[in-house]
Input
Amino acid sequence: TVGGMTPYPDWTRIGDGIVVSGKHRFLLSTELLGMKELRSEIDKTYTPFNILVQNDDGNSNSKSMSLGAGLGYDLPINVQLMTMSLKDNGKTLLLRFAHQFAINEDNNLSQPVKINLSKLLKSYNIIHGSLQEWTLSQNELKKEQLKSKIYWTKENNNKNSDDERMSMSSEFKGDSDEDDMTIVLKPMQIKTITVKVQI
Output
């Protein structure tokens, strides 16, 4: 076996050694602009855009919708669209948005960001009021997860436990209002949402 190991407890390498190669990249920048430029370069290097468009099958009765329809406006540079997928035979649009910056990494880009889904998804004919926020893996609604969340209290704490629970629930509560079509992303936050689509 080339580059393998013997199967015995006193392992011995057989054959040529394993060669690992890689690339080193250096970014020279100022302290104020460093993280902004770094995040941008990381996205270009590791997650380049791959545009995929579904071909029409020629059937005039087909109501399938292409994900290549485009977005209503450019997302801010501190927000990344991680997932965009049609589910339920094209009736539901699944989206994941990620805030790219941590707190204090950049004066402007580390701030919370509002995304108006009505404007962003105007070409998808979304149903207003259908916005739902999910856990990251989309296996439970965020509001249901928060109901079952365990809140730990500290011993000898002067603060009322109910007050602490309220403050913690508001801290982890989703910023999405299901009757509104706007979401807020805090630094380094990822949100999984669905909206209904009229086809």
User: Anything to note?
Assistant: The helical segments are 34-46, 117-120, 142-147, 161-172.
